[in-house]
User: What shape does this take?
Amino acid sequence: MPEDEADAVLAASDLRKITEYTLTDIPALKAQMAEARRLGYHVSDQQSQIHNVSTAAPVLLMDGRAVAAVHIPGYAPQWNLESVHEKLVPLAVDTARRISDSLTDAM
Assistant: This one.
């Protein structure tokens, strides 16, 4: 998502804490979004649900627009952040890339 669109979404969002780990600070959220853009994925640690860690990677069209995402949640007591980065992130990124490639081939 382009930065100006992200700014509009953040401005219109109800930024309330869902868990003690939920980010509600716009500069912190923007920094997290920039990091996700740079890495090509995001890892969430209990931000939307206690005991839930997850990763997501975007499905992209040829022009770079995100049209979907591959999201893999895990139960925090069984998945620590290191194991999410080691095992789930590569699966999410590879699956998202394969879907992106298939969309490109179909168009």
Residues 3-106 form a domain with the Beta-Lactamase fold (CATH 3.30.450.40). The radius of gyration is 15 Å.
